[in-house]
């Protein structure tokens, strides 16, 4: 095969001509450069040119004027060969360069495997709907059984029978607790500030600035602290869980657990779930305090309240029930984040992009579940009047 | 070879095994017996379902039909707990090594020991160090899997698989991706472990060199007919198999009397690989 130099200037683009000879013989003549860079005509143009002739029985090649060639040339020839074969036309390869002849022979040596080619089929609306429903059913079933297994693992832990490495729990605790503090600090203070700003503008019109303290405290305690820590943990920890477990799936590490009789649920999911169950309420309390401080900063600097007045108003406005509601929600959100991350990780396919998808869908699932469950909590607490 | 050469006592008996993913049949009608002390090779072109057969033998994939027996006990119809107890008598070396990446080599080897024995931490560490020394990884106890080479990971994987002194060791393409020397050392290690401990070995591979140097019995899976087309000592199959395709495979496709074109094996395998 002639190796192509990169001198673009001295190149003539490949060209071809079809000469009809007597007795249904066509002679295909090639000239110029048939290389990737020279942009010669494709196989489609040639085959349609040939197809225009009727009564064709035989095709020959003349490559006397061909300067250089590479796989583009072979692809074009292959197109001619395949189409001619299908139409029952003889192809005589003798006129081709020896290397090209060998490559064409090699490419046609193994017949295409029956049923191997993927043909894109478009499903009808009903078929698509049916398939969607079946897969939705399957994933619902998987989710339910996963939650069930996780519950059993948690019960086994409570009775002291669960098997997992203590050091895994320690690592997960560190990851979900101290390492999450900076981002929780930043977000909580900012949320407190924002709530105070929003309230301040309205309340100042009535000279009721002091109620900014009530607004911030109640909003943080009941809703914002739990939701924001939940969302932060979904983004930083849930995604990490999914990626860790997904990678272990790719490396067959989870299989290695299974064949040794270790349950991945106890060894991998349980420590992560426990870590979030322990750490989420602590992070929620921390976020409460910092959010209230953030509100206080606005109150003191912008609304000329004294720190003492702000503090007293805060204490008077929120009850332990408010904090209790927020903190219990944070425990639930922690479980949701841990389960969504671990479920998506263990369901991950065995490729790099599958691990990425697992992390993405873990975050999406966690956040959706957090918001939905929070709405559920809001309805329940208002109905029972707390 | 010492007294632990292959015996005629059946260890693993597979009868009429069918494997499929949904409607997609991987292999059907597999019937073979692995004796105690055998080094049993499961071979065949890429994508013929060798690894799936192995997954069925180690309890990761249930068969569509058929029976797998270990020392006469039915594996797949056993209770979950019984099956798990049987699985504890296996060691498995996965294709990628599958060492737990968050643990050191000593912890990898020691974890099964810690869970299934009453040994203390220092005894476990000594045992783990011994197993690692057996596979030539003395001094690497505190390395993480990502810090050692591919060949070392494979050997550490064997050390972990041997942790509970299993009766049978399953190896999934042990020499894949190894240079010829490491591959030879691994073969020597497998022979040595079989001879000294009497462990039955089931190896999925298509490395001809190791098939001939260690295999005592084998089964050949065909991707086209989706069943086994030959069985027996790989050296005998190479020279005397009635099936030309098997002889061709075992002679690296250089069989003079071969009728099929040379690339057929590789090409037909590739398509199955892409299946679900």
In brief, what are we looking at here?
The complex is a heterodimer of chains A (386) and B (276). Chain A has 12 helices and 4 strands.
Question: How would you describe this protein?
Answer:
The complex is a heterodimer of chains A (386) and B (276). Chain A is of the alpha/beta class and 386 residues long. Chain A is elongated, with a radius of gyration of 35 Å. The termini of chain A are far apart. By secondary structure, chain B is of the alpha/beta class. In chain B, helix 3 runs parallel beside helix 5. Chain B is globular. The C terminus of chain B is likely disordered. Chains A and B meet through helix 8 of A and helix 2, helix 3 and helix 10 of B.
Lay out the secondary structure.
The complex is a heterodimer of chains A (386) and B (276).
Chain A: E1 15-21, E2 25-34, H1 43-51, E3 58-69, H2 71-87, E4 90-91, H3 98-109, H4 125-158, H5 166-176, H6 181-204, H7 211-250, H8 253-259, H9 264-302, H10 307-317, H11 320-346, H12 352-384
Parallel strand pairs in A: 2-3, 3-4
Antiparallel strand pairs in A: 1-2
Helix pairs in contact in A: 1-2, 2-3, 4-9, 5-9, 6-7, 6-9, 7-9, 7-10, 7-11, 7-12, 9-10, 9-11, 11-12
Chain B: E1 10-21, E2 24-35, E3 39-44, H1 50-57, E4 65-70, E5 73-74, H2 80-87, E6 90-93, H3 105-116, H4 121-134, H5 150-161, E7 168-172, H6 180-197, E8 200-204, H7 208-214, E9 217-222, E10 227-231, H8 234-240, H9 244-250, H10 264-273
Parallel strand pairs in B: 3-8, 3-9, 6-7, 7-8
Antiparallel strand pairs in B: 1-2, 1-4, 4-5, 9-10
Helix pairs in contact in B: 3-4, 3-5, 4-5, 8-9
